[in-house]
Give the backbone structure.
Amino acid sequence: MITPLKRVRGLGSAHEGASHFLAQRITAVANLILAPFAVGLIAALAGADLATVKATLANPAVAIALLVLIISMTVHMRLGMQIIIEDYVHGEGMKVLLLLANTLFTLLIATVAIFAVLKLSFGG
Amino acid sequence: MAEVSSERQARPRPLSPHLQIYRPQINMVMSIWHRMTGAALYFGAVLLAWWLLAAATGPDYFAFVNGLFGTWIGMVVLVGFSWALIHHALGGIRHFIWDTASSMDIASVNFLSWATIIFSVLLTAALWLYIASDRGWIAAWQ
């Protein structure tokens, strides 16, 4: 017999409880706050020369906001694409392969973007 | 036993209706678009990382990438990117409302779904009108 307590301790069929659901929403809140800032920043910087971009990103508040967004955004991307893969890909081998590709792709995007923001911010 | 199991397999099992059976309804369409814009933004993130990397690479390559984004194909992609972002963000707000288990009656669901598409188009238009006037494109065009 499965009691409610046992159900909670087992954390459901995926054994991770509501952590995926919560992480998707926590990153969504961060994205909702920071993405409009990034859109405004990019709209202001589009077409500007490199010196202006570097001077803008040299401001720690701007760079830190972008870094938090990059982390939150790529985690959110990974969680969302994981759900899409799990919904539509039923072959076990292909599913594992795509889930791995999802993790590596979002990790690569995050690393490239963070590296670029840090380099620009430090004036390199 | 083998006969029984093969007979069972030969008989088609009942399936729940697929998407194409239903008459499209606005909440269903917005649900599908939420996922589609999310997937588009997933791959669109490459453009953001590319632009940042181009700036970190040097002035020549940054100018080259900025030039690509400035072509009409680049602009169409950027308008689509911004619409997908705004639409997905508004869809996310709608889901936050539903996460509180409120506004789940049919009238509210339909209202929120229509509001998502209408406001996503209006906000995208407002964003690009602002960019166009900020750049002096409108003055140059007149």
The CA atoms of residues 72 and 130 of chain B lie 18 Å apart. Chain B has six helices and no strands. Chain B touches chain A through 32 residues (CB under 8 Å).
